[in-house]
Design a protein that fits this description.
The protein has 423 residues and is mainly alpha-helical. Helix content is 84%, strand content 0%. Helix 4 runs antiparallel to helix 5, helix 9 packs across helix 10 and helix 9 runs parallel beside helix 16. The longest helix is centred in the last third of the chain and has 41 residues. It is a multi-pass membrane protein.
């Protein structure tokens, strides 16, 4: 049974799940450590930089890493891959310099020079993970997550053993350096010592990549808006306690997001192979399975947690946040829809349909932004989740349309090629 599962790609999925899980555990562990032993100021500072680096990473990925997923699984990809890496390293260095320039302007408590190592380290780690997943090497991707997990855990254990309070600069520094070093080691292992190409030819490729990145950049920024809008609107409208309530209802569902994330990582290589083989049926079948299976599991988990919420509130939350069963169910629907979003994202990136991806992301973000204010007025904080559900449905519908159009074009090109070879 196990051997059969591995032959069907189960090991790839398990490693991808481990990669996502270690990332989630790292974030959860640091957050809990700061909640239990740190101050609200320290927690806010860490959350600020953790979210800032995600925005920066999305911006840089749109110009660099996203293009790796459309490369053919042949040796012809390596020249472009080296140029993409050099562009990523250059932008990571610029991000570090910009962070150094901005830190003194932020003042206390956000002005931490450790962020100048944290930002580029995370950017390099993200790119190395993209290289590994594009090549189907999920073990290397998981290693990039395992190294910072162990390093940051060691810091937390040492602080706890010494009875010292948490140090946000140390946590940022160790996290960034360990991810950056792990990323560089994996890139060198996969691509060799000449992994980065800074030649004039490579710089010309940078300009080509930049011209092709407009849609992916628009998609990334739209997704950032879609993902984070509720945080700022609920906080501004109802205050921190309301946002804390939504967060409490979501927390127990977070493991479900790992299922879709693992599929998104593990499926990159197989999707690229099916695309270049012209296997439209296999491509679509993999996407449908990758969206449907995690979504069903998410909904089942959400129903179970909602049914057990009195126990969750009484025991895990020490009697706080009672009566959130309906909010939990809304979150489970939001996360189930996001499973299909992950599948559509992977599909359109593999088909190099970045314009379709951007249209879907912008459509979902605009719908969510328009729907959220009246729904907040009508339904209070849970209205934000209803707005996300509506925007998510629009987004997934547009993603599905883009995938089907891409597969239709791929099938047409395949038929033309076969007729030409037959002639």
């Amino acid at each position: 049974m196990i051997a059969r599962l591995f032959r069907k790609g189960g090991l790839r999925y398990v490693l991808a799940f481990a990669d996502q899980g270690l990332n989630a555990l790292l974030s959860l562990g640091v957050t809990l450590w700061l909640i239990r032993r740190g101050s609200a100021e320290q927690l806010g500072t860490y959350v600020f930089w953790a979210n800032t680096v995600l925005v920066i990473g999305t911006f840089i990925t749109a110009f660099t890493s996203v293009h790796i997923y459309r490369l053919p699984p042949t040796s012809g990809r390596y020249a472009t891959e080296r140029a993409i890496l050099s562009a990523n390293l250059t932008m990571a260095a610029l991000a570090a310099l910009l962070t150094l320039a901005v830190v003194p302007l932020l003042g206390h408590p956000l002005g931490l020079y450790a962020a100048a190592a944290f930002v580029p380290g995370i950017v390099i780690g993200l790119h190395a993970r993209a290289v590994a997943t594009a090549r189907g090497d999920m073990g290397s991707a998981a290693a990039i997550s395992a190294v910072p997990f162990v390093a940051v855990l060691a810091v937390v254990v040492a602080e706890a053993w010494l009875g010292a309070p948490p140090s946000v600069p140390l946590l940022l520094l160790v996290n960034g350096l360990s991810q950056g070093v792990a990323g560089i080691v994996i890139i060198l292992r996969l691509c060799g010592p000449g992994a980065a190409d800074f030649s004039a030819s490579a710089r010309r490729r940078w300009r080509v990549l930049a011209r092709r990145s407009g849609w992916s950049l628009l998609a990334g920024m739209a997704n950032e808006t879609f993902t984070r809008l509720y945080i700022f609107m609920v906080f501004a409208w109802f205050g921190a306690p309301a946002l804390a309530t939504l967060t409490a209802a979501q927390t127990m569902l977070r493991p479900a997001t790992l299922l879709a994330g693992a599929f998104g990582s593990a499926a990159r290589g197989p999707l690229a192979s099916r695309r270049h083989a012209g296997d439209t049926h296999g491509f679509l079948k993999l996407l449908v399975l990758g969206g449907t299976a995690p979504a069903i599991i998410t909904l089942v988990l959400g129903g179970l947690i909602a049914a057990l919420w009195p126990w969750v509130s009484a025991w895990l939350y020490a009697g706080r946040y009672a009566g959130l069963e309906n909010v939990v169910l809304l979150w489970s629907v939001v996360m189930a829809i996001s499973c299909f979003w992950v599948a559509g994202l992977a599909g359109l990136q593999s088909l190099a349909r970045l314009r379709s991806l951007a249209i879907a992301e912008v459509g979902g973000a605009i719908t969510c932004a328009i729907a959220m204010p009246p729904l907040l007025w009508l339904l209070a904080p849970p209205g934000a989740l209803v707005a996300i559900i509506i925007g998510g449905c629009v987004q997934v519908a547009l993603l599905a349309y883009g995938v089907l159009k891409g597969l239709q074009a791929l099938g047409h090109r395949r038929r033309v090629t076969l007729r030409a070879e037959a002639g």
